[in-house]
Amino acid sequence: MLTTSLRIAQKALKRNKLRTGLAVLGMTIGVAAVLTMFALGTGAQESVSSDVKSAGTTLIFVRSGNFTKGGEESKIPTGMGSSNSLVADDAAAIGKIDGVKYVSANVKDRTWVETSNQRFYTQVIGADVDYGKAYAWGFPKGKFFKSGDVESAANVAVIGTTLRDHLFGDENPVGKEIQLHGKPYRIVGVFEAKDEDQGEYAVIPYTTAQKMVGTSSIQMVTVSAEQAGETTRISDDIKKLLRGRHHLDSKPMPKPGAMVLGGLQAPGLGGSNPDDFTVKTQASEALTKGLNTSVAAFILANMPQMDQTNSQEMAGTLSRAGSTMTALLAAIATISLIVGGIGIMNIMLVSVTERTREIGIRRAIGARQSDVLQQFLVEAVTLSVFGGVFGIVIGFIASFVITNVLHWPATISITAVALAFGIAAVTGVFFGFYPARRASQLSPIDALRYE
Question: What is the DSSP string of 396-446?
Fold first, then answer.
């Protein structure tokens, strides 16, 4: 019986193609709007979630060597002075710590950056591929170098907008060359940084920088946490990890007062070697800059409580933002579907009126009320499903255009597609039921008399 109803529905809908097309168009627009808004809402939620979680200071700096000026007076381990103990494998191990989002090994140098007719003295940063992501750099021209460039120690570079202006003016430097220590480096990208000083940087693969300065170690590891409130915990995890990797707890402890690697060994270390590295969060560096060692130590001791407060505030903000996005999405989706559903109901009511005699004939030759009800419900659902399919296609196209042209995040999942399609079918049943029921309740005699 369902197959027969589908065949009858197909013929009925073909009789007036313009009217059918308009009904399908109304549903198409409704479903496309729902899917597009769902994609925009999901993308916006992810964006807000990312921004809220990373709000504040998420960076952690791990530097080779350790020396605390004035540490003896505050009974703080003075440290081991300069050290070359950090290696690229340390950075890779740090990247596996829970809560770490980006990590980059770094080697630094200050030198002249030259072109054929210009030169600029600045800082050259050797970095891994996630360095720019950690600082949220944008790329108006080109892009960051790839992991293959790091593995092969390629002579490639990305430069900041300030350095570009000094060396190339208004020209696009991507594909051109600069000279570092007399060797050519091909520019693959130009980045925009929030920090004005970073705009002067030239960034090359850290493996290339190691060859350039003649070292197998690294000077620093830049770490970005997923959430600002986790930086103190991650810093503690990094310290434990590196002490274990550098075997500091198993090495013989230096004698008190002895000179060790350029720094004084502080007394009263409790039987353990001092770190040969320093770990500082972006927040702790900002808060303790220029302060006396004892005051700085007091602030650092209270950093975990500050992080906990920040985490609670961010969780509440994220929850409120998610609720707002959900309410906005639901309101727009409801309005769009009501408009499309009313269009279908209107078309089906007109169809019932036009086909009153047909309904009477069908009832006269033995069709039951349920058969007529099913026939018109099938027609309504067919209109709705066709509109849903076209709407899903247009929704994908609209989301793609919005993402690539307006640079607004739009994410479409399989769940969203299934939900849009299901909503289209349910809308057809809901708004088609009244016209179908009205058709099924027509008296056969009255229907046959209808002109």
Answer: HHHHHHHHHHS-------HHHHHHHHHHHHHHHHHHHHHHHHHHHTS-HHH
> Tens of pLDDT along 269-326?
445 677 888 888 876 555 445 444 444 454 445 555 555 545 555 555 655 666 676 6
Instruction: Decide: residue 69, CB within 10 A, 0-12 exposed, 13-18 middle, 19+ buried.
Output: exposed
Q: Over the range 241-275, which residues count as b (16 or more CB within 10 Å of their CB) and which as e?
A: bbbeebebeeeeebeeeeebbebbbbeebeeebbb
Please tell me the predicted confidence (pLDDT) of residue 307: 55
**In terms of DSSP bridges, do strands 156-160 and 183-192 run parallel, antiparallel, or are they unpaired?**
parallel
**Type and span of the H or E element at 334:** helix 303-354
Among 185, 156, 155, 159, smallest CA distance to 172 is for 159
The pair of three-digit structure tokens given for residue 86, joined into one six-digit string: 């950090």
Mean pLDDT of 337-354: 73
pTM score, two decimals? 0.57
Q: Can you spell out the DSSP letters for 290-316?
A: T--HHHHHHHHHTHHHHHHHHHHHHHH
Cα(20)–Cα(151) distance, rounded to whole angstroms? 60
The secondary structure of 152-195 as a DSSP string is TT--EEEEEHHHHHHHHTTS--TT-EEEETTEEEEEEEEEE-SS
| Torsions phi, psi for 129 (to 5 deg) | -70, -20
pLDDT in tens, 203-254: 999 999 999 999 999 999 999 988 777 888 899 999 999 999 988 877 665 5
Q: Output the six-digit token pair for 420.
A: 């849009």
Nearest to 427 by CA among 329, 350, 333, 349: 333
- Token representation of residue 88: 């690229």
- Residue 411: φ, ψ to 5°: -115, 125
Cβ atoms of 409 and 360 closer than 8 Å? no
> Tell me: the pLDDT tens digits for 126-138?
999 999 999 889 9
Residue 64: beta bridge partners?
277
Q: Does residue 110 surpass a pLDDT of 90?
A: yes
Contact 221, 90 (CB under 8 A): yes
CA–CA separation, 127 vs 125, rounded Å? 6
Give how far Cα 257 sits from Cα of 265, 269, 294, 397, Å.
Answer: 5, 12, 21, 71
